[in-house]
Amino acid sequence: MHLLLLRHGETDWNSAGRIQGHTDTPLNARGVEQAEQLAARVAAEGRIDALYTSPLARAHMTAEIIARRITHTPLCDDRLKEKSLGELDGMTMLDFQQRYPDLYARWQVSQEHVPLPGEETPPEFARRVQTFLDDVRARHANGARVVIVAHGGTIGMVIATLIGLDINRRLPFWFDNASVSLMDLGGSRPRLRLLNDTCHLRNGCQQQMSK
After folding, report:
1. Full domain range(s) for residue 73
2. Is residue 209 in a domain?
3. Which one is catalytic: 2, 8, 60, 200?
4. Domains identified in the chain, total number
5. What is the pLDDT of residues 186-207, one digit of tens each?
6. Residue 86: which residues within 8 A CB-CB, separation 6 or more?
């Protein structure tokens, strides 16, 4: 099975550097354009067997744009929502620093998870991602090609869960808006074939993701 892990296009909160978490923000004009470019790339890949999306507007809008190219109805799943950041939702990094200076200082330097006020904990986040992955693997054949449109934190947790990273350490991933990552689950072990690729937003891509 191939999992095509797609981050949603840009929102106004992304461009302003605001933490979104569970806050439901739509794509902005640039985000719609990015989603169109992402959709063209996915459509060029050939057969797609399923399209799953977070129900949050920024992901669902991206998935709907992709769906028009691949003729699959997006299947919403709450387990694909971004991690809830609790009281930090809506803040910029400067807001965070000013409101919680000691916590911010620890968060800046720690390699271990630093608990944030009101957040969804790493074990809670990992459990909902794992149950989603279990359902997808049970629902689709080994050779299936499944598109998942979600959020940076969610995609990071999907990859961490599949390759067995310690979720109590801060994950080393960054995902740009409208980026593509690819996990191959077809062999004896999961393989990360592509990470945070955005060639479709620049000068085009030279090869198919699944090759």
Report:
1. 2-201
2. no
3. 8
4. 1
5. 888 999 999 999 999 987 776 5
6. 21, 116, 117, 118, 119, 120
200: closest CA among 7, 1, 68, 2? Answer: 7
156 membership: H or E segment, kind and range: helix 152-163
Q: Give the residue from 160, 88, 159 showing the smallest Cα distance to 120.
A: 88
* Residue matched to tokens 């991933």: 173
- Per the annotation, the verdict on 72 as an active-site residue is no
Q: What percent of the chain has pLDDT above 90?
A: 91
141 lies in some domain: yes
CATH of the domain at 189: 3.40.50.1240
pTM exceeding 0.85:
yes
Find the catalytic residue in 22, 60, 140, 151: 151
What's the pLDDT tens digit per position in 163-187?
999 999 999 999 999 999 999 998 8
